[in-house]
Design goal:
single chain, about 250 residues, alpha+beta, six-stranded antiparallel β-sheet, two-stranded antiparallel sheet, 5 helices, DUF8175 domain-containing protein, transmembrane helix, transmembrane, membrane, DUF8175
Length: about 250
């Protein structure tokens, strides 16, 4: 028989795994693990493709570019003859053409598409004034007058005057050549430009200046008909070109 002392010495200490504190901690750990598994499962479900969500556009602190206003358009009038201008004879008159200032569309009877700038207004004035003359013929003055002159009673009077003129095409040397220009005022909406022409008759050198008015309308320069439909109301004779920028075919 074993002695009591041997039994006492041999008896094992209570197992730490069965102690109440450890059991409580283990139970708590199992709960935490279980919660982790649930979270992981739900997280895995979230990774699956779902309905497409449109991306949220980044908000920029820089304001969007605003459309160009008339105040930003060029307004500096040319004080020397515009560069890049070529001259072509159209119905007996040398007219200016520019790749930059226009006209973009032109034919023997009509010219349109002028730049919204001082040079565009200048070339439009020279083109339209010549093309609406009686010497240009009805095939030229009629579409020019009805499409590129602003409607008014003066335009109607000018049309009646042109209709009364006999059809007589100009011959070389019959028409006064363009000699220069003078800006009287300019804004992106309205241009008032004097066109100087050299008189072709008389021994004494003289010029006459015709004041033209153009307005920006429907994306192009349109001309205002002269008062009463008569260009003579806007014409004055001068004996020199003081204040005029010389400009014309050479």
């Amino acid at each position: 028989m074993r002695s009591r002392n041997y039994e006492a010495d041999y008896a094992e200490e209570p197992s730490p795994w069965t102690r109440p504190g450890f059991v409580l901690a283990a139970a708590l750990l199992l709960v935490i693990v279980a919660l982790g598994v649930v979270v992981a499962v739900r997280s895995g479900d979230d990774d699956e493709p779902g309905p497409a969500t449109p991306p949220v556009a980044a908000v920029s602190e820089t304001p969007a570019a605003q459309p160009q206003t008339t105040g930003e358009l060029p307004t500096a009038v040319p004080t020397t003859a515009p560069a890049g201008v070529t001259w072509q004879v159209v119905r007996g008159t040398a007219l200016p053409f520019s790749d930059r200032a226009g006209p973009r569309d032109h034919s023997d009877t009509q010219a349109k598409g002028f730049a919204h700038a001082p040079e565009g207004a200048l070339i439009a004035a020279a083109q339209l004034t010549s093309r609406v003359g009686a010497a240009a013929g009805r095939a030229s003055w009629e579409p020019t007058l009805t499409r590129q002159f602003l409607p008014s009673a003066d335009r109607d009077r000018l049309q009646r005057a042109l209709e009364a003129e006999p059809e007589q095409p100009a011959q070389p040397g019959d028409l006064a050549p363009l000699a220069g220009y003078l800006y009287q005022s300019y804004s992106p909406d309205t241009a008032v430009i004097g066109l100087a022409y050299r008189a072709v008759n008389g021994a004494t050198a003289r010029w006459f200046i015709v004041t033209t008015t153009l307005r920006w309308s429907d994306g192009d320069w349109k001309m205002v008909a002269p008062p009463g439909g008569a260009w003579t109301s806007l014409s004055r004779t001068v004996t020199d070109l003081s204040g005029v920028v010389e400009w014309g075919a050479r």
